[in-house]
Amino acid sequence: MRRVAVLVAVAAAVLAAGCSSAISTPLRVLPCTPSDGQLDKQLVLMAQSVPTASAVPCLRAELDDWFLDDLDSWDGRTRIEFSRLIDQVALTIELTATCDRGGATETTTDQPGTRRFDERIRTGGTYRDRRFYLLPGACVAYEFVLTGTGAEEAADDISRALSFVTRDQLADQVRSYSGGRLQLDPERPQ
Prior knowledge:
This protein is α+β, with helices and mostly antiparallel strands and 190 residues long. The protein is 28% helix and 32% strand. The chain is built from 4 helices and 12 strands, in the order H-H-E-E-E-E-E-E-E-E-E-E-E-H-E-H. The protein has helices spanning 2-24, 41-49, 151-161, 167-177; strands at residues 55-59, 67-74, 77-83, 89-96, 105-107, 115-119, 122-123, 126-127, 130-135, 138-144, 146-147, 162-166. A 7-stranded antiparallel beta sheet has the order 2-3-4-10-9-6-5, covered by helices on one side. The chain is globular.
C-alpha cells in the first residue's frame, strides 16, 4: 500500500509541475525570424498543410500574457488556438486556401501584401470580432473571443505581435537549417 501511495504522490507532483510550467510559460512560439539557425517546425507544417499559401502566420514579438493552447495542421488547413486565461480560447486562427468572409467588410490592412476584411461582433462586454486576411493562395481568419475590461486592448496587443512569414523566407530557413539537404516544397516527379 505504501508503494502505491508513493507512486500516486510522484505522479501528482509530475502532473502539477507540468501544469504550472505550461501556465507560466509566456508565448514564445511561431517566431517570424528564428534565432541562431533554429527552425520552427510548426511553421513548416503550416506551409505544407496549405501548399498554395504564399505566407503563413507567425509572431514577430514575444507576449508574456498569451499562451498557445493548440496547433493542428492537416491537409488543407491549420488551426491555432491562443488563450489569455486558463481554459479560455481567446483567439483562433485558421489558415486555409480559401474562406467565406460572411458579412465582413474590407478595411485598411495592417499586413503588407494582404487584403483585410473585418466583422465587428460586440455583445455586452464581449469582444467577438472576426478578421480575414486574403493573400495569394490563402486566407487567414482570426476569431477573437475576449471578455471583460481591456478586451479590445488585448486584441490589439496580439494583433500587433502577429505577422506573416513568406513561403520564400520559410524555404530559405529550411535550406539553411538543413545545410541545403531539405526543401520546403520538394519538386514533384513529372
